[in-house]
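job 3f2a | input accepted
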Amino acid sequence: MTDMTTGNISKQLIRFTIPLILANLFQLSYNAADSIIVGRFAGTEALAAVGTANPIINITIFFIIGICTGASVLMSEYFGEGNIKKFKREVSTTMIAGFIFTLLLIIICVILTKPILRLINTPEEILLAATSYLRIIFFGLIFTFLYNVFASTLRSIGDSKTPLIFLSIASVLNVVMDLMFVIIFKMGVNGAAIATVIAEMLSSIFCFIYVYKKVPMLHFSKEEIVLDRALLNITAKYSWVSAMQQTCLYVGKVLVQGAINPLGVDAIATFNAVNRVDDFAFTPQQSIAVAMTTFLAQNRGAKKHKRIKQGFWIGMKLETIYWGLIGIVVYFGAQNLMQLFVPSKDSKVVEFGVIYLQLMAFFYILPSWTNGIQGYFRGMGDLKVTLRSTFVQIVARVLFAYLLIPKMGIVGVALSCLAGWIVMLTYEIPLCIKHRSTY
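job 3f2a | predicted structure (439 res):
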């Protein structure tokens, strides 16, 4: 456990952020492993099937993550107050309600898989593979919830290292299983999906065992396992807004996917590959924002106003420094990054992907700032701003995507992202300045 209401702010944010970044990089690595291994050993159509499915998967996964993130703001606040009884009731309420909700989500998603794929103009030659891949992943969502609720609970008390350890182990196992199922057993996209589900199951089991053996504060008697209606209402408000904010982003990606799909299999495969690289750029930015959220929520609970202001600026500096590093890597390494997915240098997928990535290397500065500002508003308990700002960003991105992609192809995707982030910052910055001046 780490109390962030006292001590050196920079060190606390960095120490908390690094395990989060590493955890997310491991998460991304076993997601990217599906695409890399499938693309190299099952072909371009298989890569396109996974690529078409991924934005839909991300909607459900990040909806679940959003629920856990919203609840973790309350957990951090109650922990910062020193109100352990209320903290434990919040954990219990989140776990029970989230488990029930995830089961319902699985049923709905499995039923609607094929209609959703048809809705986004998925080519017939990859429809069957994409449907099969999606349904297997959907059945594993219960493990996605269990891991994320345990991880969010541990992070709310300042422990970001333990979830990293278990996720890293599961990530390595996932890659091994990917290689075995896809290459040796020739199971194609289904093998990649099964490997992902098993990895998620293992990470959730590891977290449960650790909490049971090593964190006495998170042991619950029968009387403490309750669904507190009052807390459920508050949690639902926080979690719903956080989940909608997370989901809104990926709904936008699905809509953009709908503009990409008519361009053909090469364009779909390119979009899948560059999205994986984008994830490696964006997710650490989001990790820094999550660290800011936990820090600010704890200090808000402890009423440490000066530390809140200092924590915000230090977090924004970390976001900008990270952009400088990732921008250099992506710009100069674009060719090599694309060849991870498609080995041929002359492939259209590689050619299109390099153009996209070298543009995005400069654009990544904008989401680094938007993520930092959103981390601030989440930590201050004002999640409506994060939802609204994400919504206006997605509306702008989708509108520009459908205007630009038919004329400019993959370049249109990059420019539509740029337009969305500019609109988002135009909305967020005045609100942030006003909020900070009155707090």
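job 3f2a | Residues 44-81 form the longest helix (38 residues).
job 3f2a | closed
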